[in-house]
Design goal:
With about 500 residues, the chain is mostly helical. The protein is built from 20 helices and 3 strands.
């Protein structure tokens, strides 16, 4: 068999995964609760079918033929990278028993409804049995995958290759060193006016405005749509159908707006992947069995956090779009200046909910989750003790007393779907976003000039050229090296936070 045969065979893997994504999207947006049990089995069937095709004799024969055909091509050529990634993925999945994958996928689908009920009732005991089983499955996964130092390393590999528990501990320590003095100084500073964010904002108007702003920055709705859900997400069924969701609180408008901008950042990554990579391993995560074009979940998060925070929460954005938001909510914001709105949506104060956390305190939510996950996986923390450990960590990190499980340990959807090991991606994404944005604007001053004039095309084009178009061709650090001249570096992020919040709060 040939390279063309490998592309066709891996294309069918991509088809299975995209079919699963369609069912997952439906389950989280449209499906009635009664469909959860059978949907879980449908998703498990598709995941196992994708895995079996990937590890089949047909795929191995195609791989051998492709390896011979592309021999001599540069190591970083698309063809060589596809062959290498298929070889790695087969070896990875052959270490994981098929039945373990099936159990994990079935539970990940059915546990979502259990989690949603537990969150609605603010009762962790409803979700605890499912989570206990999911943690056990992930421990088995870690043992099957293999690791050198900590089982958490094996689980993070699925989402952020190369990241280790030890390395993450060092990275978090550097962030705390740079951020804690800022948090403490802000606690003593005068707070920006923000009561207008909690006025009455009709749901339909919020959805219209959120979608208009997502389109304004570049989300292509000819290849996507916006819906509502309990927890915002983006999902792609190839670059030609990339859907986003947000959630709405009629008395807190920023939730829908920034949720949509965040997910639009994810979507523009997928929509920007080279069309030639469609249905190939360069647009398919064969390790995690997701049909995504982003090279890592952290790289994906860098795009969402960049558009949400560096653009959507910027001074220039609201200088340009204050008239738009006033028009969207007639009479509601007439007494608010663009400066007041900018400061309000960037106010920093400890909060319970990660997805609503401000840019400065957000990473403390991530540190907490990563530390608890690592303890769950290595057995030093039991699921039954998780709410108490969560509440204690929130008090330690952010000084808040968690009122109930819905505002605490039950707030994230990730554990219900079995995604243990993915929270690190959010902080890595924040760091990457600052590194990419600072490089883009320093090397191309016209990008900032365009942003000042509400023109988002130059930045979007730069990100497409440096990040999105490459799909999964380069590793995360290769992508960063090529775009910024260095691997993952927290210093631009610390500088960004320091400069931004020192200005907002008039810190010396």
């Amino acid at each position: 068999m040939s390279y063309a045969g490998l592309i066709e065979a891996t294309g069918r893997v991509n088809d299975f995964l995209n079919a699963g994504s369609v069912l997952s999207w439906d389950a989280r947006t449209m499906m009635p609760k009664g469909g959860a049990e059978t949907r879980a089995k449908q998703l498990a069937t598709l995941a196992v079918a994708a895995r079996n095709l990937l590890c089949s004799d047909e795929m191995k024969r195609a791989l051998e033929g492709a390896e011979a055909e592309v021999a001599g091509k540069p190591e970083d050529s698309p063809e060589a990278r596809i062959v290498a990634q298929v070889r790695e993925a087969i070896a990875y999945h052959e270490r994981i028993p098929t039945e373990l994958l099936r159990r994990k996928t079935e539970l990940g689908a059915s546990a979502h409804e259990v989690w949603a009920e537990a969150r609605e009732k603010a009762d962790f005991s409803i979700f605890a049995p499912a989570l206990t089983t999911m943690v056990d499955i992930n421990r088995e996964m870690a043992q099957a995958i293999g690791f050198d130092a900590h089982p958490y390393d094996a689980l993070m590999y699925r989402f952020e290759p190369g990241t280790t528990h030890a390395g993450l501990t060092t990275l978090f320590a550097r962030l705390r060193e740079g951020m804690i003095p800022l948090v403490r100084a802000i606690a003593e500073a005068e707070k920006p006016r923000s009561e207008f964010l909690f006025r009455d904002y009709p749901v339909d108007a919020q959805m219209d405005f959120a979608l208009n702003m997502a389109k304004r920055i570049g989300y292509d709705t000819d290849r996507g749509r916006l819906d509502t859900t309990v927890h915002p997400f983006e999902v792609s069924f190839t670059r030609n159908d990339v859907r986003i969701t947000t959630r709405v609180n009629k008395n807190y408008m920023p939730m829908s707006l920034f949720g949509a901008l965040h997910e639009a950042g994810h979507a523009m990554y997928e929509q920007g992947v080279d069309p030639a990579y469609t249905r190939t391993p360069l647009a398919t995560d064969l390790i995690s069995l997701y049909a995504v074009g982003g090279v890592s979940f952290g790289a994906h998060e860098s795009q969402s956090r960049l558009w949400e925070n560096h653009v959507g929460r910027s001074h220039a954005f609201w200088a340009n779009h204050m008239s738009d938001i006033r028009a969207a909510y007639p009479g509601t914001l007439d007494d608010v200046s663009d400066e007041e709105f900018y400061r309000a949506v960037n106010r920093s104060e400890p909060s319970f909910i990660r997805v609503e956390a401000d840019e400065l305190t957000y990473d403390f939510h991530i540190m907490l989750r990563c530390e608890l996950e690592a303890k769950l996986v290595d057995g030093s923390l039991e699921v039954a003790d998780l709410p108490e450990a969560w509440n204690a960590a929130m008090k330690d990190y952010l000084g808040v007393d968690v009122p109930d499980d819905a505002n605490g340990v039950l707030q994230d959807v990730h554990w219900s779907s079995g995604q243990i090991g993915t929270f690190c991606n959010y902080t890595i994404g924040n760091i990457m976003a600052a590194q990419l944005f600072s490089t883009a604007t320093a090397e191309n001053p016209g990008i900032q000039t365009a942003l000042d004039g509400a023109d988002y095309t130059p930045l979007r084009d730069w990100l497409t050229d440096k990040v999105a178009q490459h799909g999964r061709r380069f590793s995360r650090d290769e992508l960063l090296e090529n775009a910024t001249g260095r691997p993952l570096d927290p210093e631009p992020y610390i500088t960004h936070l320091t400069d931004k919040f020192s200005d907002i709060y008039a810190l010396a």
